[in-house]
């Protein structure tokens, strides 16, 4: 029982730090989009740069975080030796990568369209190397069950980043997009200083035999990681290369990047569910009737993601103010990106069948197929449809991965999902969404009131069908007192 309480506490801290961090980082969107007009293309540069960063981080860590946990907990190897070997491998690869890139910075900057500002890329390359190296000490903190320091450093990064961005872009009215990258560099360096004890608390050595075994284990994780991250950022990397008007590409990408951030509310919900659901699934894997619990968990996940979708779409007239007014033309991507995020969340929930049966190869197949769809759709459709192609590519890729995982999973590890009940919720949400969008009400207050009524109807349906008030702990106690 004590171990379960410890797990729950640690999970809550890790989860809260990640979700709060994402939410606080979300606050940078209005700072950037109000300070950098869409026509400047500045936010497009930020969107493109951070997409490149995300991909390179996966490459430079090459699955070593997972490898560290696997071998440190296996019991056959000294955990400190595993840590030292992991850290030295990632550090040597990252520093070699950084040195080579800085030596050839100008041609690389030209290739990515930053020939006039090569140090935009240069600063972020230094950030990438530092962040890749930091990944192993952060994994070590988790291994040593030190969630407070882990969360503290993550939140410190966000706090400094937001503070410096507000000072430069809001208080000083700065407009140089390079300042965003310099601030990121300062924040990463600050975190690096905070990890000094983790860099000094052991004897550096590299075990060549262990290194080979770790690389063999981690390589499939690298493939999965590349496929997974490309599903999320391929559109933002590909866009400047295939959009017909090179000068306009950064403008259009900035509009897409800013408006799709509104849909990240769904991603934050999915991640919150993920932190709670992952330990739940593996903890219940040996219990009798576990499949019924998985089916119920899936149903409630879909119910509440659909509720989140309706809430965002019904109040988009208010939420749009989190971005600059000249980015509003891209708001049409929000419902598509939100549904794509919902598909990704469902795919994540479905993925446990191959994790529980140790057939993780299926995860690689599904992710690679989705990745291929996303990349090809972006390459061929962005020149025709612009950023709308990005939204539909993500929608299609995740939909295919979700459906493949469901149908293959039902053969390998059948679970009796309540498809009829889920279908009723989805159908009701679709009807309410169409009503909210199509009923013409010009007055903003009346329009929001009408949509609030529609949202309450959906909530009432949830309460009636699957979540009676008597089952909600706080309300249940109040009812009993009555």
Please give the radius of gyration in angstroms.
23 Å
First-last Cα distance: 34 Å
Q: Supply the helix-strand structural class.
A: mainly alpha
Give, in order, the helices and strands: HHHHHHHHHHHHHHHHHHHHHH
Low-confidence stretches at least 5 residues in length (pLDDT < 50)? none
Helix content: over 70%
Q: Which geometry do the CA atoms define?
A: globular
Described by strand count, sense and barrel closure, the largest sheet is: none
Overall mean pLDDT stands at 87
Strand content: under 5%
- Our count of helices gives 22
Q: List the quaternary state of the chains.
A: single chain
Number of strands: 0
Number of domains: 2
Short synopsis of the structure:
This is Lipopolysaccharide biosynthesis protein. The chain has 482 residues and is mostly helical.
